[in-house]
Amino acid sequence: MGKKRVPAVDGMFTMDTNKPTLLGGRSKASGSYYFPKELAGNDPRSVWDNERDEVPLSRTGKVWSYTTADYPPALPYIIASEPFTPFVIAAVELTKENMVICGQMMPGIGISDMQIGMDVQIALDVLYEDDDCEYMVWKWEPVFEES
Amino acid sequence: MAVGEVAIIGAGMHQWGKFIGKSFVDLGVHAAKEALHDANVGWEEIEFVSGANTVRNGYPGWVSGSTFANALGFQGCQLASSYAACASGVTALSIARAQILAGICDVALVVGADQVPKGMFAPVPGDRPQDVDWLRFRLIGLSNPAYFGLFARRRMALYGDTKKDFAAVKVKNSLHGSKNPNARFTKTFTESDVEASPVVADPLRLLEICTTSDGGAALVVSSLEYAKKKGITDPVRVSGISTVGPTYPNSIIDMPYLASDSWLSNGDPNHTFKNKIAQHAYSEAGITPNDLDFAEVYDLSSAYELDWYEHIGLCEPGKARELLHNGDTSIGGRIPVNPSGGLGAFGEAIPAQAIAQVCELTWQLRGEAGERQVDGAKVGMSINYGMFGHGSSVIARR
Fold it and tell me: Which residues in chain B are closer than 8 Å to A39, comparing Cβ atoms?
């Protein structure tokens, strides 16, 4: 039996291993999208009517920009295993929602694999683990052509 | 917009660096005394102390106006303490300006200083999943340099900028900084030095990313009448201050957010917060970018400086590297940028940095900048931008 898989933070994404989805908010009044659902700043047009529905966001998008973390990030980032392995970070534009969301690229993706405008999709990966659980987070991965 | 002017009659700094054994209070008091001495104003004459807070030095840092006044000796004047991330120093200045223009006081001391741990800035400790600053580190490892890397790579894709262009900014600013006795780094770097430093956040290397520093800066500001009474007939004047926040929707991810706003409904995908900061300052001062003789901009990274050329209107988007390579933004060029050496030569001492930028405006406009003097400088702009939608700009003239 593997360890129990739990989200690193509740409520930001689904744990559907095959087709995980980021969970955003959508203003009932203005239709604006938000991520994270409650923490993203408000559309001033809906200041008196700011109720947000939880909505699944697009699973795919295009890379708006990318960079690397060549040095270990500070706490509260948890270094999963020593020595630290650098990773790629992508900011991805969701076409339908017209917004850009950051995330790590899946392990094994190097800087030379990246291109602005490339198609990527949401995946789940282990962020860190303890004796009982694996703590999961969303990451981006290239969209492979369906065979 | 017609906004009254105040005079900058004193500027003072403590050198930037790492000063083990000194506290932020020592650095701030040193800068304050330099500014008072420069203004030829006695401490007992100061009617208002406006402090820029540090969040990394415990309670005294959160009440900096009181802390600095106490260290100089409580003499009963009015106090204020402000925190606004990188804009803290100008927020403190803006309160002093308002007090003076409202006739509440004639002369004020503005002080900011910081002492920080070595390494990248990190959120304060504790588990806070309701805080996006905490979330971006915990879930993504999205440090400040990562944002700089994202912006730099975006420039490369949009405008065809190269790593060599970014390195050239560092080379220019290190040359400027080598002529500044208050700078932390006075070595002149070459493009090969930059290329030999390790990658931190691709495409940016260690020498291209602003470090964290200790430092202190202070200003004595007054009404124009007060300056005149002191015999200063032609003071440097603050003619515009901007402390505006972003306008929704902001299509660019700003620190420390995980996502941009959605610009689906009514947004312009080219709109950025940084343009707005500059526009407000120009509007208050009643000038345009063409009136500027030089600018101090917040080069958190080498590539970031190029963004600023465009955001403050020195050139069209994508043309920044032409200005750089023409020598336009070097001392001696058409519109020198960061004659002080900028953050590349100073590092960042958060609450002191915006004040330090205004110190440089003051010295340049007085013609007292020595080897880094911009010839005939009459109008200068400082501008910065930091976390959570705080940014600021000052336009000063003589």
Answer: 130, 132, 135
Of A33, A40, A111, the CB nearest to B264: A33
- Quote the ipTM score: 0.96
Residue with the larger pLDDT of the pair B43 and B125: B43
Q: Give residue-wise pLDDT tens across range B237-291.
A: 999 999 999 988 888 888 999 999 998 766 666 667 888 999 999 999 999 999 9
pLDDT at A147: 43
Over the stretch B307-326, which tens digit does the pLDDT of each residue have?
999 999 999 999 999 999 99
Query: Cβ–Cβ of A74/B119 closer than 8 Å?
Result: yes
What mean pLDDT do residues B55-68 have? 96
Q: Does the residue A34 lie in any domain?
A: no
Question: Do A127 and A78 touch, CB atoms closer than 8 A?
Answer: yes
Return the structure tokens found at B233: 């007939």
Q: What is the C-alpha separation between B388 and B123, in angstroms, rounded?
A: 13
Give me the domain span that covers residue A134.
Answer: 4-22+57-141
CATH architecture of B132-209+238-397: 3-Layer(aba) Sandwich (3.40)
**Beta-carbon-side half-sphere exposure of residue A26 (alpha carbons within 13 Å):** 15
- CATH fold, domain B6-119+214-237, is Peroxisomal Thiolase; Chain A, domain 1 (3.40.47)
Contacting residues of B for A67, CB less than 8 Å apart: 146, 148-150, 152-153, 201-204
A147 assigned to some structural domain:
no
A123-136 average pLDDT score: 96
Report chain B residues whose CB lies below 8 A from the CB of A73: 120, 137, 141-143, 146
In one letter, which amino acid is B157?
A
Nearest partner of B250 among B393, B143, B385, judged by Cα:
B385
At position B149, the amino acid (one-letter code) is G
Closest CA of chain A from B152, distance in Å: 9
| Inter-chain CB pairs, A–B, below 8 Å | 150
